[in-house]
């Protein structure tokens, strides 16, 4: 913990930590509510890395490839998180850590941020990246992590450049597609927006290359986390049940063969002035 | 409980943002009878405060030159200074609220509930609200212990704007608490979004394409349909992230706000960020292969179909009908 950064980096090399989350893949699954309503139906779900996190890893790897340093990927998960960490490491991260403990289960956003903050303090990182949001749309963990570390924070970041004096020039994507340019001191936490870069393709071969790396597993004791500060018991925010949103009036659904549907769509579009 | 509720009033060119009146409604529904206090922060904000006093019983003015641009990193320590213990603060769930809120909850030791879309109940110190997950595919009942305060971000458009104008509130100047704060993040400049070769904000008929098109090559099918209709092509965020279309074609809160008469949504799931960019209640026809896609809740007409099968047939029929 002695190496934990309290001052801005001065050299070129950056130690970058990227926090990732394994989530049900929205492209591969239709999300349903479990019969008892306590959770989503998790049988047969296909998981992948949270889309935003992929951009965060790519951005970290890009910064390090251009100017030196190392990228470490961490995730709060059970043992199933290993494959996700390997997949993201294959993009060019040298190190990975799995933060795993039965006591972490059921953590709310703050609990998760506390676990990540403890992991951040085991290294000497100049920059921490998270995805701007994940499957629950909360967009909370990055900002909480920064506050716990007492580091500056910027959310929905779509540009990262080094200024050379220990500060970064960053862009935030704000409403209407405008870009808010800021200068931020390091060490800092940034939540990364999709579209900031083009995440590289990771093939089987790339994953094989990192498979010999043994991912250290850090539990609550290793991280020095009081067990009553994380997990379900510490959570002040709890989901108590899921439901499918009211359909409202809903759309009038057109059915039939492709030919029939196309003919009906043409009629409707013409009636509404959609064909000119 | 006797809640001490605050509403953050975002403002633009001397006028409170629409979000402020939506937050006023949200405050009443989440904490009935609480009489929220408005917080107005900025530089030269007397007019905003006066207008806010029409909607809130009390308005706290935080006037400082450094706040001319609402930098969340500056505002957070100021709010930590001025807010009482156990405060409940409502923020808009937008890029400002996301910037400010999570860290503010940590610094205040308060709970954080982001992106609230509806109120369920308040029982003792347990606030019960509704959130959405998986881009609106499922909703969740969420309980939050607000005994030590809470920061809530409220989804834009989820609560109707309160009727303003007659509250006759008083403005309290708390600017003395806003001085002497510096931040490790400084605002530099705003780069406005560009208008592309086609200005989708002025088009009456939009053929809008989303992730369901699957492959860049398939965009040709969309362009052919749009041409046959005499329409313009717009898109949702994933298409711009993939760099298949220019950012100027993106509809949504992080893109353009459009107000067409007819909106054909092709392979667009219908996230609130996308729908937030469509105004004026156009006739909306949605095609998606997922029958549970949230877009079908808001579209006038829905079609469950594979775009790559449907689009060529549709284009052909329109050409024949000319």
Defining key terms:
heterodimer; A: 276 residues; alpha/beta; Rossmann fold; two-stranded antiparallel ribbon; 13 strands; 26% strand; B: 322 residues; elongated
Can you describe this structure?
The complex is a heterodimer of chains A (276) and B (322). In chain A, the strands form 2 sheets. A 9-stranded mixed beta sheet of chain A has the order 9-8-7-10-6-1-4-5-11, sandwiched between helices. Chain A has one domain (14-234): 3-Layer(aba) Sandwich (Rossmann fold), CATH 3.40.50.620. Chain A has 7 helices and 13 strands. With 276 residues, chain A is α/β, with parallel strands linked by helices. The mean pLDDT of chain A is 93. Chain B is α/β, with parallel strands linked by helices. Chain B has 2 domains: 5-178, 3-Layer(aba) Sandwich (Rossmann fold), CATH 3.40.50; 200-320, TPP-binding domain (Rossmann fold), CATH 3.40.50. In chain B, the strands form 4 sheets. Chain B has a 7-stranded parallel beta sheet, sandwiched between helices. A 5-stranded parallel beta sheet of chain B has the order 15-14-16-17-18. Chain B is elongated and about 70 Å long.
């Amino acid at each position: 913990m002695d190496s934990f950064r309290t001052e801005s980096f001065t050299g070129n090399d950056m130690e970058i930590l990227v926090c990732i989350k394994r989530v049900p893949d929205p492209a591969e699954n239709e999300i349903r509510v479990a019969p008892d309503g306590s959770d989503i139906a998790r049988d047969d779900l296909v998981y992948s890395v949270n889309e935003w996190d992929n951009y965060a890893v790519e951005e970290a790897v890009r910064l390090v490839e251009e100017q030196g340093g190392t990228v470490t990927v961490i995730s709060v998960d059970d043992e199933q998180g290993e494959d996700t960490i390997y997949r993201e490491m294959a993009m060019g991260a040298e190190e990975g850590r799995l933060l795993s403990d039965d006591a972490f289960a059921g953590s709310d956003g703050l609990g998760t941020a506390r676990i990540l903050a403890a992991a951040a303090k085991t290294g000497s990182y100049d920059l921490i990246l998270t995805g701007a949001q994940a499957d629950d749309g909360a967009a909370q963990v990055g900002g909480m992590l920064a506050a716990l570390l007492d580091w500056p924070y910027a959310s929905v970041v779509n540009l990262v450049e080094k200024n050379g004096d220990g500060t970064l020039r960053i862009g935030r994507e704000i409403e209407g597609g405008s870009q808010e340019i800021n200068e931020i001191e390091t060490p800092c936490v940034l939540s990364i927006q999709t579209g900031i870069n083009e995440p590289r393709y990771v093939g089987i071969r790339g994953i094989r290359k990192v498979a010999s790396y043994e991912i250290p597993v850090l539990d609550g004791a290793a991280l020095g986390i009081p067990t009553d500060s994380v997990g379900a018991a510490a959570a002040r925010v709890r989901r108590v049940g899921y439901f499918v949103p009211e359909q409202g009036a809903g759309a009038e659904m057109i059915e039939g063969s492709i030919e029939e549907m196309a003919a009906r769509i043409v009629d409707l579009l013409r009636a509404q002035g959609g064909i000119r | 409980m006797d809640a001490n509720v605050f509403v953050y009033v975002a403002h633009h060119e001397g006028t409170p943002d629409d979000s402020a009146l939506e937050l006023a409604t949200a405050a009443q529904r989440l904490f009935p009878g609480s009489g929220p206090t408005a917080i107005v922060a900025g530089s030269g904000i007397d007019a905003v405060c006066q207008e806010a006093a029409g909607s809130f019983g009390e308005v706290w003015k935080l006037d400082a030159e450094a706040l001319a641009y609402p930098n969340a990193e500056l505002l957070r320590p100021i709010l930590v200074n001025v807010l009482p213990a156990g405060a409940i603060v409502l923020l808009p769930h937008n890029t400002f609220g996301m910037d400010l809120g999570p860290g503010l909850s940590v610094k205040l030791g308060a709970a954080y509930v982001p992106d609230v879309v509806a109120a369920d109940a308040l029982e003792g110190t347990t606030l019960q609200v509704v959130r959405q997950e998986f881009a609106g595919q499922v909703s969740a009942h969420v309980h939050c212990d607000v005994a030590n305060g809470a920061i809530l971000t409220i989804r834009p458009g989820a609560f109707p704007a309160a009727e303003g104008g007659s509250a006759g509130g008083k403005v309290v100047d708390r600017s003395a608490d806003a001085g002497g704060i510096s931040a490790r993040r400084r605002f530099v400049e705003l780069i406005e979004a560009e208008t592309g070769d086609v200005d989708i904000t002025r088009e009456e008929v939009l053929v809008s394409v989303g992730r369901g098109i699957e492959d860049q090559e398939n965009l040709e099918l969309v362009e052919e349909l749009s041409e046959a209709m005499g329409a313009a092509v717009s898109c949702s965020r994933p298409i711009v992230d993939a760099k298949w279309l220019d950012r100027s074609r993106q509809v949504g809160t992080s893109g353009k706000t459009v107000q067409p008469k007819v909106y054909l949504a092709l392979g667009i799931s219908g996230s609130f960020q996308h729908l937030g960019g469509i105004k004026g209640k156009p006739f909306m026809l949605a095609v998606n292969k997922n029958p549970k896609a949230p877009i079908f809740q808001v579209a006038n007409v829905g079609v469950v179909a594979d775009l790559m099968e449907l689009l060529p047939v549709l284009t052909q029929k329109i050409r024949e009908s000319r």
